[in-house]
Amino acid sequence: MARSVLVTGGNRGIGLAIARAMAEDGDNVTVTHRSGEPPAGLKGVICEITDGESVKNAVAQVEADQGPIEVLVANAGVTRDTLLMRMSDEDWDAVVDTNLGGTFRCVRAVSKSMIKARKGRIVLVGSVVGLMGSPGQVNYAATKSGLVGMARSITREIGGRGITANVVAPGFIDTDMTAALPEKVRNEYLSRIPAGRFGNVDEIASTVKFLASEQAAYISGAVIPVDGGIGMGH
């Protein structure tokens, strides 16, 4: 039976791969995007996750179209990388308000219908950087680390209602962003990954699909690394 699924930031990269994979499995999927048109073959809703009213309205539109949201994949995020001493308040605030605040607003907006239905899957897309840390990413790493505490608090609060909340922590994944890195930087990253390669977006999507499935009903508050081994021990 098709489920009502919302994927934030599902218009490109990892989010798009997740949305397409779930749609191909027969789910009724809508992606959030900030402007323009949704990706071909997918439904979209304009949403600015830093604005609580925008999130509330987007969720209402999705639920009117495809029913109460049963699966939320919170993927939308931004980076403002720079060294700590050069990081401005704006650099910090923009990343925290989007990656952490935006995820909170989306979870809050869908939780009411999940609690009422006594079922739901919440998957937060974190990062290995949130577990290991990374120079030049104090803001980004702090937000991705914060998602772990968020998922675990959600689990303790509403886990008894048939709702799970988990974090997928991707490592270095082949996307437009990593493709644009200088070859020297790419090689330096590769040298640290035990698997000897970058991951691909489909490997993230398949993990998210599993966590959103009935087979994962007894997994909650977990962090699932998909990183080729780079984050071991963290």
UniProtKB/TrEMBL annotation:
Gene3D superfamilies membership: NAD(P)-binding Rossmann-like Domain
Catalytic activities: a (3R)-hydroxyacyl-[ACP] + NADP(+) = a 3-oxoacyl-[ACP] + NADPH + H(+)
GO function term, MF aspect, one: NAD binding
Pathway assignment: Lipid metabolism; fatty acid biosynthesis
Keyword annotations: Fatty acid biosynthesis, Fatty acid metabolism, Lipid biosynthesis, Lipid metabolism, NADP, Oxidoreductase
Protein residues bound to NADP(+): G9, G10, N11, R12, N75, Y140, A141, A142, T143, K144, I173
Active-site residues, as the UniProt record annotates them: Y140
Enzyme Commission number(s): 1.1.1.100
Domain Ketoreductase: 3-176
TM annotation in the entry: none
Entry-linked InterPro entries: 3oxo_ACP_reduc, KR_dom, NAD(P)-bd_dom_sf, SDR, SDR_fam
GO biological process, one term: fatty acid biosynthetic process
Signal peptide (UniProt feature, chain positions): none
Pfam families: adh_short_C2
Enzyme class: oxidoreductase
Role of this protein: Catalyzes the NADPH-dependent reduction of beta-ketoacyl-ACP substrates to beta-hydroxyacyl-ACP products, the first reductive step in the elongation cycle of fatty acid biosynthesis.
Subunit details: Homotetramer.
Family: Belongs to the short-chain dehydrogenases/reductases (SDR) family.
Protein name: 3-oxoacyl-[acyl-carrier-protein] reductase
Record organism: Kineosporia babensis
